[in-house]
């Protein structure tokens, strides 16, 4: 299966991991009450952890025991890094070498377009650089989460009154939840007591942003900084430029839109001064990248604001990142294609490079399949619950984009609804490209072309 269909192998391993985590969370030892967690809740939490989503049907601060919290924390770490990437890192650590098969698996995990097809090596990360990328993944996880933990732990001790063991554990939990863009909060009352804590929220926002831009971008930035110093200069690649540019555009757009739409809402930003409003809005904009560590109840927001956040969550973060959504590079390629068509260009161009038509076709496919999954899940859950469109759509897109911002609908769903939302999280995390590659047969080449005829579009 590894040779014939890497995508199917990846889905098999990913699904098997979810089933194992479901079994572990169902054990009496995993709950603080010492009783078995219902299957629907255990499965939902396992999917939410492995898919780094952050939605929950139980109170994450009180329901799980220490064993359960360790299971959840290890699940979100594995899910954030990537199953095949983690396996490749462990294999490299043990054998001190990285064979072609391991390189191909890791390359497919970081770029699903490489699964089940012959691709050009003009990639953001070539096969020869996979070893360096894996090292960057391992190093960035350890360093970034370690720094975040060191910044959060003392603050929890002095500002919130936690003793050192609890502050250290909760600090590490929050740092992992932020960097993996999961959104689980182990603190009683969530982040509501820290809604005006600029220091803690800034640290969490930085962690979410770094996780959302993706490991290939972090690797590219590292090479670029080193290359600009005492080594020879290295160019920052197209993928990194597109990811950073589009991410910043969406963050600024979300910042201004949320601030403008919620300015006079007395349930959210109305009582705040100008500085607090601008900070809270940019924080919430960053959280829509897939962070999910919200400080405002979506039920208190205007419907227009929820729609803007729906769009931001649907786009998500960078490719090969801990974030979800259809990815910022996907939407960037689609906008660039529209711009090229409007200007009469034959090729899609950006930053002095042309983008192959294959990438454009995949981007269109991702958008269509993503919208189809969201539509099907929304209709199904609306029929089950009778809830309004804005609330259900917000929850479904948060699940598909593995964001974790919630209107508390997840906890109110019947078991069938929980399974539907869990399937939505699963599909959003593995990605529509991987799903399509897993469903499709092996690549077929035809020795003929059909006659061309152009339908009328537009």
Automatic annotation (TrEMBL):
Domain of life from the UniProt record: Bacteria
GO CC, alphabetical: plasma membrane
GO biological process entries: metal ion transport
Family annotation (InterPro entries): Cat_transpt
Membrane topology: Multi-pass membrane protein
Transmembrane segments: 42-58, 70-94, 130-152, 164-187, 199-222, 242-261, 311-339, 359-382, 419-441
Keyword Metal-binding: no
Gene Ontology MF annotations: monoatomic cation transmembrane transporter activity
Keywords, alphabetical: Cell membrane, Ion transport, Membrane, Transmembrane, Transmembrane helix, Transport
Compartments where found: Cell membrane
Protein name: Trk-type K+ transport system membrane component
Natural source organism: Leucobacter luti
Taxonomic placement: Bacteria, Bacillati, Actinomycetota, Actinomycetes, Micrococcales
């Amino acid at each position: 299966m590894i040779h014939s269909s890497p995508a199917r192998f990846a889905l098999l391993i990913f699904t098997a991991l979810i089933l194992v985590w479901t079994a572990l969370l169902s054990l009496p030892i995993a709950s603080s009450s010492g009783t078995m967690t219902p299957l629907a809740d255990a499965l939902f939490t396992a999917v939410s952890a492995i898919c780094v989503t952050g939605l929950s049907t139980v109170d994450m601060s009180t329901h799980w025991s220490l064993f359960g919290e360790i299971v959840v924390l290890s699940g979100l770490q594995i899910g954030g890094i990537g199953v095949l990437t983690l396996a490749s890192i462990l294999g490299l650590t043990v054998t001190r070498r990285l064979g072609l098969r391991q390189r191909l698996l890791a390359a497919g995990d970081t770029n699903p377009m490489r699964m089940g097809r012959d691709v050009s090596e003009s990639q953001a990360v070539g096969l020869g650089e996979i070893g360096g990328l894996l090292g960057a993944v391992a190093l960035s996880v350890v360093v970034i989460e370690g720094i975040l933990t060191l910044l959060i732990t003392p603050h929890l001790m002095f500002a919130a009154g936690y003793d050192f063991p609890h502050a250290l554990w909760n600090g590490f939990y929050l740092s992992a939840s932020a960097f993996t863009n999961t959104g689980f909060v182990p603190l009683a009352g969530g982040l509501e007591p820290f809604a005006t804590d600029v220091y803690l929220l800034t640290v969490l926002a930085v962690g979410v942003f770094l996780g959302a831009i993706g490991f290939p971008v972090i690797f590219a930035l590292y090479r670029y900084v080193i290359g600009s110093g005492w080594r020879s200069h290295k160019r920052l690649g197209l993928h990194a430029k597109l990811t950073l540019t589009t991410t910043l555009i969406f963050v600024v757009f979300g910042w201004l839109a949320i601030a403008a739409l919620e300015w006079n809402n007395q349930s959210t930003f109305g009582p705040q001064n100008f500085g607090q409003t601008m900070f809270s809005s940019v924080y919430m904009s960053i959280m829509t990248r897939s962070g999910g560590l919200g400080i405002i109840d979506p039920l208190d927001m205007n419907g227009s604001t929820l729609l803007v956040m729906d769009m931001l969550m649907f786009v998500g973060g960078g490719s090969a990142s801990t974030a979800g959504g259809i990815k910022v590079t996907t939407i960037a390629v689609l906008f660039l294609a529209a711009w090229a068509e409007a200007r009469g260009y034959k090729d899609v161009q950006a930053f002095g490079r042309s983008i192959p038509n294959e990438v454009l076709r995949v981007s269109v496919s991702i958008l269509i399949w993503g919208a189809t999954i969201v539509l099907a899940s929304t209709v199904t859950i609306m029929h089950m619950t009778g809830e309004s469109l804005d609330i259900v759509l917000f929850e479904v897109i948060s699940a598909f984009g593995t964001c974790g911002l919630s209107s508390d609908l997840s906890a109110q769903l019947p078991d069938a609804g929980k399974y539907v939302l869990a399937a939505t999280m699963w599909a959003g995390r593995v990605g529509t490209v991987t799903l399509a590659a897993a469903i499709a047969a092996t690549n077929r080449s035809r020795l003929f072309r059909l006659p061309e005829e152009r339908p009328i579009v537009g």
